[in-house]
């Protein structure tokens, strides 16, 4: 297939939630549409991504992807038979990957399947999972090098069929701004420093660890800002009440446009733990807004944050270490500035959205041609 010929790309997503994974799907879809490709997203009509696709200007179609059962399998098989012009289906979660992996094997002239693995949780070492990643997909994209290593070493997936393509950041949208102006427009304090987390309220994002760090810090010259919503909202609110720090944390919920919230901050924090993370979009967005970052060794975070260069890395679930790191950067304006500039340069040079789109196009064209994708 000629590289200048537009592709017909379909993204599938069985998740009902909303987070970085779903944002990447819609951001990438919009970018591919702007490049002249035909793109659609298939998902369950009750899901959040179905509702948000219109906001991104991305075509969306309802398909039953709720469960790994014969009903959903038949729905996917029917959809594939009715849409023979599709070149590539990019699956994103477990259920839709299984449904398309199995259903596509029952039809002739099937589309190529690319599985994007967004999280760092190790894939089970069993026959079914090994089939899905070795044979059920034509190629596997990950959001971090550590995930590539795990799939290769743990699950025996050939490196020729793996590639790390971190989520790109729109460096024309996520830009440094006027901190005072942003705070005034958002109604945030202008007389104290602000430390922020922009992330879905999920246990593994570490909001509770941030709360514990705040409770250990006697200083009262800064506040936290939590931007995001999610399943752990009630647990986080209970933690805030338990620690009696409600007046020190501005909880603003989900924000469609997080740019001004990032521009209002002095310091960005993401104390994630566990193996869920790839390279978090929020970290790259913060760096593109010229913010210093404090994070952890979870997942592939260290591919974005260089310790003592673009920010600080602390051990996961260590609230004391997090408090010490926050104290250090709040006290040293010149160090915050140094890390912020280094992170900004890294974001605009290594993580622009066009890099992600170029590499995903390369994967899509190569699997369509049944060729091995060149090394990253």
From TrEMBL:
The record's keywords, sorted A to Z, are: Glycosyltransferase, Transferase
Documented EC number(s):
2.4.-.-
One MF annotation (Gene Ontology) recorded for this entry:
glycosyltransferase activity
Q: What enzyme class is recorded for this protein?
A: transferase
Pfam families attached here?
A: Glyco_transf_4, Glycos_transf_1
Q: Which InterPro entries match?
A: Glyco_trans_1, Glyco_trans_4-like_N
Residue ranges occupied by any Glycosyltransferase subfamily 4-like N-terminal domain in the UniProt entry: 18-172
Question: Taking every annotated instance into account, which residue ranges of this chain make up the domain Glycosyl transferase family?
Answer: 179-345
Supply the PANTHER family for this chain.
GLYCOSYLTRANSFERASE, SPORE COAT PROTEIN SA
Q: What is this protein called?
A: Putative teichuronic acid biosynthesis glycosyltransferase TuaC
- Organism, scientific name: Rubinisphaera italica
């Amino acid at each position: 297939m000629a590289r200048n010929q537009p592709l017909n790309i379909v993204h599938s997503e069985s998740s009902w939630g909303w987070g970085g994974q779903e944002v990447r799907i819609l951001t990438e879809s919009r970018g591919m549409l702007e490049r002249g490709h035909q793109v659609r997203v298939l998902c369950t009509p009750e899901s959040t991504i179905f509702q948000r696709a219109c906001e991104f200007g991305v075509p969306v179609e309802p398909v039953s992807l709720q469960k790994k059962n014969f009903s959903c399998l038949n729905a996917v098989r029917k959809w594939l038979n009715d849409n023979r012009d599709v070149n590539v289906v990019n699956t994103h979660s477990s259920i839709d990957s299984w449904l398309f992996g199995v259903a596509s094997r029952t039809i002739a002239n099937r589309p190529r399947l690319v599985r994007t693995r967004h999280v760092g949780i190790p894939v089970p070492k069993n026959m079914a999972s090994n089939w899905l990643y070795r044979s059920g997909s034509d190629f596997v994209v990950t959001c971090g090098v550590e995930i590539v290593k795990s799939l290769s070493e743990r699950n025996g997936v050939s490196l020729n069929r793996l590639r790390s393509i971190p989520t790109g950041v729109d460096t024309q949208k996520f830009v440094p701004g006027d901190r005072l102006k942003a705070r005034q427009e958002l109604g945030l304090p202008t007389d104290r420093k602000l430390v922020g987390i922009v992330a879905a309220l999920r246990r593994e994002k570490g909001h509770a660890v941030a709360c514990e760090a705040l409770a250990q810090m006697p200083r009262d010259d800064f506040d936290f800002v939590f931007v995001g919503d999610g399943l752990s909202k009630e647990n986080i609110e209970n933690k805030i009440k338990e620690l009696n720090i409600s007046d020190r944390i501005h909880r603003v919920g989900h924000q469609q446009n997080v740019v001004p919230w990032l521009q209002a901050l002095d310091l960005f924090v993401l104390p994630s733990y566990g193996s869920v993370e790839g390279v978090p979009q929020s970290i790259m967005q913060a760096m593109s807004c010229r913010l210093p970052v404090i994070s952890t060794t979870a997942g592939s975070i260290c591919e974005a944050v260089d310790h003592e260069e673009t920010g600080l890395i602390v051990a996961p679930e260590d609230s004391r270490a997090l408090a010490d790191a926050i104290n250090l950067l709040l006290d040293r304006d010149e160090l915050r500035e140094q890390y912020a500039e280094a992170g900004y340069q890294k974001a605009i040079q290594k993580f622009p959205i066009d890099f992600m789109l170029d590499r995903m196009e390369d994967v899509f064209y190569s699997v369509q041609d049944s060729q091995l994708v060149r090394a990253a």
